[in-house]
UniProtKB/TrEMBL annotation:
Protein's name in the database: Islet cell autoantigen 1-like
Annotated region (Disordered), positions in chain: 267-289
PROSITE patterns listed in its UniProt record: AH (PS50870)
Domain AH per the UniProt entry, residue ranges: 43-246
GO molecular function: protein domain specific binding
Gene Ontology, cellular component aspect: Golgi apparatus
A Pfam family it matches: Arfaptin
Lineage, highest ranks first: Eukaryota, Metazoa, Chordata, Craniata, Vertebrata
Native organism: Cyclopterus lumpus
Length: 289
């Protein structure tokens, strides 16, 4: 008799696990296919969904920021190289020009070469910013994403249990002991999954809030260093260019004259040749007569 009770209890536990898996799978399909869920259940997670939307925004923008920093560093390097090449070119031309224009080219070449070197000072703070964002993405965002995945799994189990309880409650007959006992078991299952889901839900909300605050602190600290370096660069560059302008103030610029309606000499030669041919044609006709 005892062995028979054990077999019945085992069969019922197996059936319960199968039913739990069935309703969990059904919830997964509902979410995957985008079918409408219970509006009250969805509304109860509105604050959580808002946190998740913010988290995914942080995740996406950090990845995009890393790409932008890499492109920015590359273009700063290329611009500094081109600026230095222009400065060297002007220096070479100034060595062969002893006029006032040569002096201007020499002064400008020095300013451009200096500006190219100072521009490269922007790379270290950008490199530091790239490292901090990458570390933030690999650690803070990855840790939060792991908690989010656990929470989503718990939410699926909880909502699947709610579907199960809804199905059982529709066929519930209070006078039938077995149905009432089944409903109580399902209700216990719902309470257990809800408790686990609520705990992970709070963890996710707290971690997302901390993630947003950490990102603000990281960017304000790193961008402050970059901003200071950038302002110093522009101040030195503006001072050098202003010095060139003051040094050569009053210098008479070159006057250029643009020639308009200038005909091609080949066209004039062709036109003259045509006129000669016209004059020679009547002469040949009189000779023949």
């Amino acid at each position: 008799m005892d062995s028979w009770k054990c077999v019945v209890a085992y069969d019922s536990s197996v059936m319960a696990r199968m039913q739990k898996k069935f309703w969990k799978t059904k919830q997964v399909l509902i979410k995957a296919t985008g079918k409408k869920e219970d509006e009250y259940v969805v509304a109860s997670d509105a604050d959580l969904d808002a946190k998740l939307e913010f988290f995914h925004s942080v995740q996406l923008t950090c990845t995009e920021l890393l790409k932008v920093i890499e492109k920015y560093q590359h273009r700063i390097t290329r611009l500094s190289q081109e600026e230095n090449e222009l400065g060297l070119f002007l220096r070479f031309q100034a060595e062969h020009d002893r006029t006032k224009a040569g002096n201007m080219m020499d002064a400008t070449s020095k300013a451009l070469c200096t500006s190219a070197k100072q521009r490269m000072a922007l790379c270290p703070p950008l490199h530091r910013l790239h490292q901090e964002v990458e570390t933030f993405r690999r650690r803070a965002i990855a840790d939060t994403l792991l908690t989010v995945s656990y929470m989503e799994k718990a939410r699926t189990e909880y909502r699947g249990a709610l579907l199960w309880m809804k199905d059982v409650s529709q066929e519930l007959d209070p006078d039938t002991y077995k149905q009432l006992e089944k409903f109580r078991k399902v209700q216990t299952q719902v309470r257990g999954t809800k408790s686990q889901f609520e705990k992970l839900k709070n963890d996710v909300c707290q971690k997302v809030d901390m993630l947003g605050a950490s990102r603000c602190n990281m960017l304000s600290h790193s961008l402050c260093t970059y901003q200071t370096t950038l302002l110093q660069f522009w101040e030195k560059t503006a001072h050098a260019m202003s010095g060139i302008q003051e040094a050569f103030r009053g210098h008479v610029p070159y006057q250029f004259t643009t020639l308009k309606d200038l005909r091609d000499p080949l066209d004039e030669i062709t036109e003259a040749q045509k006129q000669e041919d016209k004059k020679e044609r009547p002469r040949h006709s009189n000779t023949d007569r």
